[in-house]
Protein 1
Amino acid sequence: MLALVKSYGLNGLDGFPVQAEIDMHSGMPTYDIVGLADTAVKESKERVRSALKNSGYSYPVASVVVNLAPADIKKEGSLYDLPIAIGLLAASKQIPYDTLKRAVILGELSLNGEVKKVNGLLPMIISARQQGESVFVIPQQNADEATFIEGAEIYTVKTLLETVELLTNQSDKKPIAIRSWANDSVYKSNDNDFKFIKGQFAAKRAMEIAVAGGHNILMIGPPGAGKTMLARAVPSIMPNLTFEEALEVAKIHSVSGQLDGGFVYERPFRTPHHSTTMVALTGGGNKARPGEISLAHNGVLFLDELPEYNRQTLETLRQPLEDGVITVARNAVSITYPADFMLIASMNPCPCGNYGSATAECRCTASQIHRYLGKLSGPLLDRIDIHIEVDNVSYDDIHSEAYSEASSEVRKRVNKAREIQLKRLMGGGKRCNAQMSSADIKKYCKLERDSAELLKASFEKFNLSARAYNRILKVARTIADLDGSENINYMHVSEALQYRTLDRKYRV
Amino acid sequence: MYTLSDKICAMLGEKGVTAKKFFQLLSSLNDLDELPDVIADNKRLESLFGDSYVSVCKALKDCEQVRLFSDMERNGVEVITWFSDKYPSKLRDIDEPPYVLFCKGNVSLLNKDGIAVVGTRKISSYGRRVAADFTRLLADDFVIVSGLAYGVDSVAHEVTLQEQGETVAVLGSGILNIYPSANEGLAKRIVDNGGLVVSEYGLRAQPLAYRFPHRNRLVAGLAKGLLVCQAPLKSGTNSTVELALQQGKDIFVVPGEIYDSGFSGSNNLIKSMQGACVTTPRDIIDYYGLDNRLNDSKTVQLNFQEQRIVDALSLGGKTFDQLVVETSLQPSELNFLLANLELRSIIARLPGNTYRLYGGIE
């Protein structure tokens, strides 16, 4: 007889309904899967057969056809093992058929009948909820992913047997308890906290401003100055992750199988190595997977040793930095992934790393330094509002018992500044100062007369380039917001001026 | 307009005929008027120029001259030759004087008193400070001559421009082929602001390695005195110093730290007494007896917090973090104060987020 089991498939970050149709008729024992299944799906045959046998069921001696409908969309992954196994049991009348009608079933099978974790579960359940499904059977290992989905009846199972008991109403298993977000939204304090960073006052202040205004930031400093440590601490001062944001992040991480903690409670911090390829960074491959910039969505993308990255790879960042999304097109699919991240980059001031250092001698020639700095294109630097120099911390600093502000305190100020910005920019789909357009800058960054004069004087004095102008205004706006000030005053502009190191043309 | 002999010099210069050859040619003449005849005489040219005579003849005889001069006019290049009135007399006495100078900018600077500010391309922050502070004061009284290279040369030109002084850049490449190309903008600003860029090589001559020590005789020759800001043991600066000594120029050397190999050349000059040790630009001004200016020391009004910063910096440069600790100011406040002090030229910011007092050696 024929059995139909509901399941789901994934296309980018959206799920689509898949119906596993299992038919059986007498004849030579064969097993065929149709419906554009990839190798992982086709191999389910062996897993299903062993799982059935080892769970005490018999594998039907018959000609079996499995169709995954709709038949013209590619299916991939191991998540159809469980629905196929259940369908086989129903088709061979080992369990009653009408039990299957309501539930969407997802899960991979192990040979011993255990149900294992699958990737991309969260986006599938979210899509299924939107399309009217309400009952789900998912692997126990995926439970955390689903615990924030409201209004659904989600059952978790550990084994095939348990699944059968559940479906045939022989178990008293309850659907998982839905947690509300507020319980989990407290940032879990860890090693990467500002209070552990001694000294580095200038850099910490710059980080606070950068986070408050959503500005991208470039740190320039010798090796060992603590650039990486500073960058790692940044998520701890970023505004709390809202549920919507967390869900977006969790979806992306779920799709690429990186949802290690079950769900996302912290802003992601991604550090692709500088040998990374363009595809790894932006997303792609034959399955158009999300890349590092999408995995860093709503969090931080940290590019250490920026000039060491392939120039072309870096240039691909330009569009996502502007738009906050990236569209990955591969032969059959074109998928848009969100990629709204804060870019933190670090570099040495010269190839040997010691140019301008107080303690070590630089061995580079002027032209080497020029070439090194020249690796960063103007358009890319254009998208980085804040440059800051970071120098080595002295021994005294490291050992000082002086109080360093904890991240939670910094974050309070950041949250306040963000609120002001949100209110000001409301309606434009923008959230922070870094996203302001030229028109916004004109509207919101009015300077008082003395600050305007200061800016003019500093352009002449510091040899600033034209592209610095808007950046300085944006950063000054953020500093004013941190200060709780309506107007941008003299102080704010002068501080913003300090964050344009690379624009000072006469560096070398 | 150019005389015929000017034109011939320009064409020979464009073809890369060396000064040595040119003066051989010149000495074989009884009278300057013979020059065109000699040029017409292939045999004589061949004996003088050897293998390269064919191209020289060609340059001199056919229409290339038209092209050269229209090229020069289009690019605002003026030529000054051995035969022109504007030729600086101080160059006539040096060894192997240039017979042609391609110039862009204010050619009258060639005849003014100059100080050559020279040093390594690989400049330390102390060397930069020396070059800047000395140039700043010297630019009031002298034309600042240098070589438009990276490092000390660039600082010297740049600071002179900031001080609205006059500066001459002597190139080791063609005047339309600025080297290093990163300094093209600087060269343009020199020309636009009443300075002069000069080269004895053809308009687009390549920056060949031998040309830089070769042109150093002009850097020394155009100046009255030579100021060595920073020189390691092996440096092009040493060749300039040697040439200047041959030419009998005054050598001034600023001492550096004895442990710093970037200054071992400078310090050796002092040790071997080839140059006078100077520690302030006043030393040079006094040496030439020019110090008749009013002492225009300005007083600045500092508020309490600014005074704290200035006090903290009075014992030498400090990083931002050190200042935070010493002044116990908030980073945001300190940033604001530092930007202001820098704008008012009371302090200067160095690479590495380090600050120091401005000047401070007058």
Protein 2
Amino acid sequence: MKRYSILFVVGLAVTAVSCQKDFLDRYPQTSVTPEVFFNTEEDLALYVNGMLSLSGHGMYLSDQSTDNLATTAAVEVKNIMTGNPSSQNVSGGWLWGRLRTINYFLENYERAAVTDEVKNHYAGLGRYYRAIFYHDKVKRFSDVPWYSGTLNPGDEELFKAQDPRDVVMDNVMADLEFAMANVREDVPTGTPGKWAVAAMAAKIARYEGIYRKYHPELELQSTADDFLEKAVTIAEQIMAEGVFRIHNTGNPASDYADLFGNQDLSGNDEMILVNSFDQTKNRSGNQNTGIFGNYEQSPARDLVQAYLMADGTRFTDQPGYETLGFVEEFENRDPRLAQTIVYPGWQRAQDNAPYVQFLAKNFSGYHQLKGYVNSTDQVLLNSTDVPVHRYAEVLLILAEVKAELGTLTQTDIDNTVNLLRNRVGMPSLDLAAANANPDPVLMAKYPNVSGSNVGVILEIRRERRVEFAFEDTRYDDLMCWHAGKLLETIPNGMYFSGVGDYDLTGDGVPDIRLIPEGQTIPAERERNSLGVQLVYYTIGTIGGGASVYLENGVNGGFLVTDDRQRTFIEPKYYYRPVPNSETILNTNLYQLFDWE
Amino acid sequence: MEDQRQENRVQWRGVCRWVGVIIFVWALIVPFGAMAQHPLVGKVTDQGGQALVGASVVVQGTPLGTATDEGGQYALVGLEKDATLVFRMVGYKSQVFQYTGQTELDVVLETDAGNLDEVIVVGFGTQQKSNLTGAVDQISGVQLESRPVSNIMQGLQGVSPGLNITYGNGSPGEIPNINIRGTTSINGGSPLIVIDGIPVSDTYDMIRLSPNDIASYTVLRDASSAAIYGARAAYGVILITTKQGRQGTQSISYNLTTAFGRPTEMPDPVTDPYIFSRVLENSTLNTPWNGPSYVQFSEAYYQWAKERSEDPSLPDVRLNPNNPNEWEYMGNNNWNDYFFKKATVSQSHNLALSGGATIDEKPLSYYLSADYTKDNGLNKLAEDYWQRKGIRGRLTFSPLKWLKLDNNMNVYQTDIAKPYASITDIYYLQPTNVVKNPDGTWGNNAAGRLAARLVDGGNNNEHMFGFQNIFNAVGTFFNGDLTVTGDASFKREYWRYPRHSKKYKIGYGPDDIREEGGNGFVYDRRGEIQNNVFNLYANYNKTLGIHDFSLTAGYNQEDYLWETTIAQRDQLISSTLPYLELTTGEARVNAEYSSYATQSVFGRLNYTINGRYILEGTGRYDGSSRFPSSNRWGFFPSISGAWIVSNEPFFDALKPAFSNLKLRASYGSLGNQNVGDFSYIQTMGTDLSGYLIDGAQRQIVTGAPSLTINPANYTWENVATINFGADVGLVNDRVFAGFDYFIRETTGMLVAGEQLPAVLGTGVPNQNSADLRGQGWELSLTYRDNFTLAAKPLRLETKLVLSDSRAHITKFKNDQRLVSQYFEGYEFGTLYGLVGDGFFQSTDEIDALDQTAIIPWGALDIVPGWPKFKDIDGDGKIELGQTVDDMKDRAIIGNTADRYRLGFNLNADWNGFDAQVFLQGVLMRDYYPRHYLFWGPYQQPYANVYPWHLDHYRATDDTPEQRAKHSQAYLDAGLADANLDASYPVLQSWLADYNYLDGNGDRSGLDQPNTTYLLNGAYLRVKNITVGYSLPHETVKRWGMSRLRFFVTGENIFEFSEVKRFVDPEAINWGTDSSAWAYPFQRRFAFGLNIGF
């Protein structure tokens, strides 16, 4: 009995105990260990596609930081101008996770068993992304620490000081040169190829060149022309290749607008890089409520005034232009105005009558059209493509940079600015005429422009503002032009002469009635000659009980959107501080231009 | 070295395995001599003569045993002369008899509130309660049987001291948070659940059990009692033992419960359209964002609101006068009424057959049960339930005298059905919404959309089918001194999560009906769990004079695998056919995978001298796959002792008034493997690109591997518990008290290492570098007695359970002692905030105290009526200090941890009637409210307005012109009048904004906790009251039944709570933000039936 039992115990024990040697070794099956990756071209593509980053519909909202839009949103530059900014409360932008992702690739791609051509193509894309990453950092902080590899805890490099702007930008340009030389022309749609890389390189070179030229505080003015010349070279190379052309089908009233509410931009000759959307392929996006509604933004009157008259003359030369109402303001203007901002008589897809501008406190009365998809079909709404790089920008880079270098000719203008003007049926820009008669309004805005090309430089700046309105270029332009002071002006809205009835749809029949603050809106509202009830608003000065604020209250004026004093301190506010917490962790970091 | 050792082990196993198999088979077939047999019958009663049902009769050292039937009768066959018979019953003292060949034996058992003779299931064995040295509590399964709970977790809440079960919401099939003794680790940690000797993978397994199938629950709280379970038991163990068949009695029982549920306390918003709209707009008028972005109603709108307020019979939908193409709404709805049921019906059925017989003189017993429970949710518009179907079959057989085999099989299925849309979106709905347009289409507003999505928007279901078989063999040798037990458990579960989303139609206007809801999709996730457990252990007991030894040694291994595949495709061909194949979009396939394994050897030695001094030591050597092979193994010892003072001769003088005293102490140290399965392996994630690349979303690698841990120093978190306890019996053990005090040190918690500059580009690797100390106590007090009332026996039992625990950080790398992080000395739950000082009454007061640092978004204006706070540091500014040493105006204003958890149970039965009252609560807790359900428009101007908000500060009376516009209800509510003596401050939206954090990550305005609006989160809930009546045994016997009981019961009947004014007192456990954004809890009233044959 005893014998059995002991044998039983031993037997049962060894029977059941697993004999697997590696019983305790378990490995993941849904993620890749780096040791077995980076072997094939597919591996490199998987990783590089993971780094893809393109601007989406949010682009149409990003001019909130500029003089193009009034906004109720709490955007950073507005907070800085109205508050007490310091490195404690301005703490954004110091994010480095993406650089780690990029540098990790650049440290590992060479392990792949593929030809050098393949390696260099993907390495080129990696360096292209790194260049964009660092250019964004430089735009914000100017001096930033340059890292060409990944960091680990214990590395002394973690605690190094910033590298000077010129060192960082030389590295950025070197990355871009390598990328332009090695990235293939033929790449999957929706990803950057050789020409997207080149367009980005031209953009960065132009920005840096102009920035250095107009920002004496950097003491880099002498090197500005190097970057400007690089921009010329790259832009000319893209133009010479003849791959792209301005989208012009001979319909000046719609060719421009076609670029922004389009279901499929992939076949459009002007597109260098497109961010595709297609709800049926699970890629949805739209910003209709942000763009058009009365959520957080409305176009500024200053932008409306920037557009030329249809005959090429300046709107701001029109007598009494400051007191024109909404309908008159839109008459005989550059056709791009009506393709960018809602015009009198425009109709929403769901309505069977023209849209009557909704007026509200803190809003300009103007409504943005660019980026708005005028449809009730949800699939369509969510499926419009976004132009990431368009050829028009390459053309305007060339024109502007040559103008700044003093090498601009009429032929250059015809090959660039005038192609854009021609698309919308605008008269051509004449170099001599522009320089002979610089716009006094623009001269006041950009007093630091000098030399023989002042007139044409100002017109090219107008062209950039108009052509790229609400496409996220205005803020960078104001910064590199050293025009931050323009942000001190609080954007305002439509003009009304005071109480009374107004037509907003352009048919001559009143649509709204403005009554003085304190009066009650009658229960039975008056009807216009079309039998439609008027929309009533009470008017008054800002802060009062009226439903709409006018400059002079019941005596009229433009719509007021805000009244908080804005101060743009130069050169400080062209830069952002390194977050306070980071300067504590790494005492080698320093703050530029009076930030603390 | 490690490799060498493993190699040796493998070779040793390889040789021995075959030898073992052969010997094992041989051992089984060796015949044994037959036993003598004499039948023995009798009756077991209490001191009052009442039959005791379910008392166990066991023949010591053999598998033989039975239990008494409904009349207290038992019968045993196959007894050998001189066999030792033990009669046991929970709540009574055991009786031991020597069998002398008699044919009849009646037994009377004495009351014992301390259950000292109860056999307690402990890790890999059983012990008599009187011999325990650790902090252990056992609950009989009977206690939960008649409550209308659909699972055992609901039933266990508040029942056992130190076992904390916290529900955050009341959705059907909800799994609560379970912990033992409070805060465990920064990284969380829950107790190990062991069902019939087999550790389960997680707390989900508890929901698969029918409360009717459970014989007992044992909670092991301290390290010494849990130590034998090693790496997964660092935070305690819950042992669940299912019922077995009993020799001699055949029984069939059927239990039915039908419950009617409705929501408990719900926040009921203001429904008057005029009051709602005007208050909402007023909330933005005092802010810089008073434009149409958020709220700006036209004069015409207010006119309509007033008309609707004064005459609710007017239509609530009309065409927009400014745009006759679209509908305009002016509802006056309380959406709780529209979306939630007032009486949802849930049911449970349980049928159990059990009994035993002898085959060829060898005992065989069986327990078969089937259960069906359907727990219906409150959603009125869509299917919303959890259900369980289960079958359990347990067969116990002794083919040989020394061998008992037990096969325990459980087959179960659970299903959850719910709509794709979340019903809690109801909290966003405004009263002015209208769900349907006059033409029957769904309204173009949030309520219309939510209803459309619930009804037409698709489902989100979950089905699980599982199978578990536990085979158990026990060999008994040396007259019962040695038992060898082998358990093998094989579990497979098949999970399926079908989910689909469909488009729905919204009526924007009479001729403008639009389809919304994306493309619609069908998603099918299927998963499989494989979980194998093997235990082999031996228990050896030996008595040498006054020395009792009990030795346990064993081996355990476990492996777990969870794999899923997900198939998804969008664009349904037809909304009526939500099937994967009937979609036209691009197909996507994904997979998930996790796996772990543990291996352990363990041992326990229990040594008792003279029945007075008990010493116990446990050790366990654990290996886990979750650590790199270099740091994989750990040894975890524990030691405990007890002194039964009342067994000392000098104590006799105190008896029977002071009938029992035992002192206990224990110390143990356990490893915790509660970390990610593959945390130590560097990997790169994969995903689908968000962008269309070549026209489709492509697979991508998401980036560089993160530096999660440093494999070189990554290892177990260690949990050491010291426990002191005392058990006290009074008045001949009618009153019994158990008390435990513990200190639990969690060391080496895995936390982020020292902060590094952001240029690192990823999180700092985690290190085992933080320590925590928890301490607390538990008290349980039982009183059990028998009385005679109207010549009938009245049995009474009350049990009070009270426990408390607190936890502090004892080590954490935070040199600056920032309050935003853990720091040494931090107490869990500590609530930092400002001390309220009323409202600003004048601009002079505002000028005198600079509160600009706490303005949400830095943009609101401080005006009279703004909350004012105490300037603790007296510098004329209200500022939030960043470090513990410089708190500025911040103070500790409370603690949000649950303290003094209470359970109180009263059971009585008399003359066939039985009654139970059960109270459960948390007696101390602070709660600072956040989010919409409390702050409404103070949080965001699209929230609801709740009645309490109407008492807000108003500096001036409205002008006569303004009053003329107001509705009568608005005037009657006093909202047009100044209100300087208000409970709530000036009505500014975003003043309590939950979404804003300042540059230091601190909350502002009313979102920063302050003493003015701090609530007492304590509650005491009448969890259950049950009244039952059992027909007399003699009566039902005539109908062929052994038992017939009717009962009515109520769950969550009433609560005492301050929070209750706003929401259900348990709802504040919801989420990390305590938003109370919870699926409602249910009050339930049920009736039921127990039938036995």
